[in-house]
Amino acid sequence: MSFVGIDAGTTGCKVLVFSENGTVLSQAYTEYQIQRSQPGRAELDSTRVWEQIASCIYQAAVRVPPEDPPEAAAVVSLGEAFVPVTKDREILGPSLLNVDVRGNEYLQELEERLSSHELFSINGNAWGEQYGATKLMWLRDREPELYDRTDWFLNWSGFISFMLGAEPYADRTLANRSLLFDIHQQQWSDTLLRLCGLDKGKLPPIAPSGIQIGEVSQEASRRTGLPKGTAIAAGAHDQCASALGCGVIRSGEAFYGLGTFPCIVPVFGELKHPEKLMSLGLNIEHHAADDLFVSFLYHMGGEIVRWYRDLEPSRDISSILEESRKGPSGLLMLPYLTPMGPPDFISDQSGMLLGMTVHTTRSDILKAVIEANAMALLEVFEKLPEAGIDVHSLRTAGGGSRSDITMQICSSILGKPLERPNVTES
């Protein structure tokens, strides 16, 4: 038997099929385009992207050895975006992404009526433009016909599962990204729905990650190559799923994703000092594993690594780093070329590189980028104990984890050992 993992991100989808012992049997990948019809707008063409994802699943499914047929499939996905659908699985419109500015106009009034501290006590997040609630409000007011026709607004994990044949659902991790979820009651919050003026009936039931929510339909089997009747399990927010895939399922452990978004995901079982988490710019979210919570320390600095690599696309990161001097780079980089995360969420500044001489090499600069990315996370990481979160070990995944030098840099800066699983496709 085998298991199908479908990872739907903002710009691409990866499908992997694993054997019972964790061996990758087949995989496929597809990329899709963000639609930007005017400044400030960013959306996915839901119909087109679903077609591409279905094709990607097919490419992976048809290469599965016949002696290991798929037993179950689950979808993990990007966070805040919703897809409007009918009960008959008709896709009604595009999906507004977290970087889309539509709905920002509601934030000031919402915070005047309910402070960020009060929201945090219910949802584990502070008010922000990236979440789903204000975008649903915008659709209600600016696209009332679409809003009225919609039976369910589904996040991408729930949407893909629904199109495969599952019942409509939202898992707890992704429901949290709407700002409409009560992390204590583990249900949609009537208080927050009333505040936003949104219809609870258009949101699907809540399910914990991992439970069966349906099976692959005949139509979905034809489109995706998955056998009809394959079990569909509830998925999770992608970072939570990556932590689970690395075996980070106990308090005191953390996942360190070294991809486009360098992201540390500490796991904890008790909410000891939520006010301290909020002061650090951190959120609280359910883990994909039961009875645990996570938070996210992140920024977008992996995009700087990719940008620098693409200046000489014939070479990979590891080979460039191997030419660097031993020890620290000798340079200091401020990595504000891309948006930063907690604690300050800087998005409108520029980066800087200090300490260059005529002897500075290309590999020195790349090492400085990697050092800066780790240092940017250290600012909050070293304060986690003040919030009652003591991290004693980290496991890594993502493209950067394949480089021993990158791993050593991150371990040295954070002052913690890093472990790399045998299978880094977490």
Fold blueprint:
Layout lengths: L1 E7 L3 E8 L4 E8 L11 E2 L1 H16 L8 E8 L4 E4 L9 E2 L10 H7 L2 H8 L8 H11 L1 H6 L2 E4 H9 L5 E2 H4 L5 E2 L4 E2 L1 H7 L9 E2 L4 E4 L2 H7 L6 E7 H8 L7 E5 L5 E6 L5 H6 L5 E2 L6 E2 L2 E2 L3 H9 L6 H5 L10 E3 L17 E3 L7 H20 L11 E5 L6 H11 L3 E2 L7
Helix pairs in contact: 12-14, 14-15
The CATH superfamily name of the largest domain is ATPase, nucleotide binding domain
Query: What name does CATH use for the topology of the largest domain?
Result: Nucleotidyltransferase, domain 5
The profile of the biggest β sheet is: 7 strands, mixed
Tally the helices: 15
What is the first-to-last residue Cα distance?
19 Å
Determine Rg (CA atoms, Å).
Answer: 21 Å
- Architecture (CATH level 2) name of the largest domain: 2-Layer Sandwich
Characterization of the model:
There is one protein chain. With about 425 residues, this protein is of the alpha+beta class. Helix content is about 30%, strand content about 20%. The protein is built from 15 helices and 23 strands. It has helices at about 45-60, 105-115, 115-125, 130-140, 145-150, 155-165, 170-175, 190-195, 220-225, 240-245, 275-280, 300-310, 315-320, 360-380, 405-415; strands at about 1-10, 10-20, 25-30, 45, 70-75, 80-85, 95, 150-155, 170, 180, 185-190, 205, 210-215, 230-235, 255, 265-270, 285, 295, 295-300, 330-335, 350-355, 395, 420. Helix 12 (about 300-310) runs antiparallel to helix 14 and helix 14 (about 360-380) runs parallel beside helix 15. The longest helix is centred in the last third of the chain and has 20 residues, at about 360-380. The protein starts with a strand and ends in a 7-residue tail after the last strand. The model has no long low-confidence stretch (mean pLDDT about 95).
